């Protein structure tokens, strides 16, 4: 299978100029250059283009995308991670769609609107009770103020990073990666850095405290609301075990 640059641009919804730019920066060279300089792309090149477009959707820059793709010999594990992220994003969007659809129906029928139903899918405070119980009101108030102080773009970026991390955990769990492996420990390091970026959490600004990380790992498994972020109880157990090993070694 081989397609010209014009065919690829049309199918991918991009432009020939963009594809030539990808070639110029070493991100997506054509498979071959034919008569009069026409570029052609084979199946492997199209798979790489699909990965580029997916990573662009995640908000990664072109240089970062090139480094990620060049470091991976086998595209399948990366595609599985992308698929997990897409599944999680699809579920989130479906929940929001249901919320908006319910509001429209209620308004059309003249019914009473319930705040809980109108805001389902938008609520970042759904874990408030757990936070207050475990780390106190000040911790929740600090993190809540941080969240509300963000711009819409900043919130979107943070949500994307969180969803991507959860998808990477889920993909690794599905592939039965060893919690002590280099890949799992790299995920654990990302997770710990992510936790440490949230104001109000124990160890914010430096590194999350060991007990905090261990406790969260156990909560991921014990609470189905958390476990579903990692594909269920089995995935959550994988996250817990990887975090526990990381905490023992580094915190």
Describe the structure in your own words.
- This protein is mostly helical.
- The chain contains 13 helices and 3 strands.
- It has 3 domains: 2-70, Multidrug-efflux Transporter Regulator, Chain: A, Domain 2; 74-123; 125-250, no CATH class.
- Helix 3 packs across helix 5 (75-109), helix 9 (152-174) crosses helix 13 and helix 10 (182-196) packs across helix 13.
Strand and helix layout:
Layout: E1 2-4, H1 5-12, H2 16-24, E2 32-33, E3 39-42, H3 43-57, H4 62-70, H5 75-109, H6 115-118, H7 128-135, H8 137-148, H9 152-174, H10 182-196, H11 210-222, H12 224-227, H13 233-250
Antiparallel strand pairs: 1-3, 2-3
Helix pairs in contact: 3-4, 3-5, 5-9, 7-8, 9-10, 9-13, 10-13, 11-13
Q: Walk across the major sheet and give the strand order.
A: 1-3-2
Structural class: mainly alpha
Number of domains: 3
Which spans of ≥5 residues are poorly predicted at pLDDT below 50?
A: 115-124
User: Whole-number radius of gyration?
Assistant: 22 Å
Q: What is the strand content?
A: under 5%
Integer average pLDDT:
79
Distance between the termini: 51 Å
Principal-axes shape call: globular
Number of strands: 3
Helix content: 55-70%
How do the SSEs run, as a string of H and E?
EHHEEHHHHHHHHHHH
- Sheet bearing the most strands, described? 3 strands, antiparallel
Per DSSP, the total helix count is 13
């Amino acid at each position: 299978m081989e397609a010209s640059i014009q065919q690829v641009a049309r199918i991918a919804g991009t432009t020939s100029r963009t594809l030539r730019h990808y070639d110029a920066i070493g991100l997506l060279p054509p498979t071959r250059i034919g008569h009069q300089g026409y570029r052609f792309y084979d199946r492997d090149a199209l798979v790489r283009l699909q990965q580029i477009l997916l990573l662009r959707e995640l908000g990664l820059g072109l240089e970062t995308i090139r480094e990620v793709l060049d470091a991976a010999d086998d595209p399948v594990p990366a595609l599985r991670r992308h698929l997990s992220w897409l599944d999680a994003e699809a579920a989130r969007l479906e929940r929001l769609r249901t919320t908006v659809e319910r509001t429209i129906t209620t308004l059309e029928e003249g019914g009473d609107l319930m705040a809980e139903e109108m805001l389902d899918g938008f609520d970042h405070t759904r874990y408030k009770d757990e936070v207050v119980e475990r780390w106190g009101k000040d911790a929740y108030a600090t993190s809540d103020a941080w969240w509300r102080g963000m711009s819409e773009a900043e919130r979107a970026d943070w949500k994307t990073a969180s969803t991507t991390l959860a998808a990477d955990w889920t993909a690794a769990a599905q592939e039965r990666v060893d919690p002590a492996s280099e890949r799992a420990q790299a995920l654990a390091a990302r997770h710990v850095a992510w936790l440490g970026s949230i104001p109000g959490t124990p160890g914010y600004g430096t590194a999350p405290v060991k007990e905090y990380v261990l406790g969260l790992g156990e909560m991921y498994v014990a609470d189905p609301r958390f476990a579903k972020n990692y594909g269920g109880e089995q995935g959550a157990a994988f996250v817990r075990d990887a975090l526990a090993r990381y905490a023992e070694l580094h915190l």
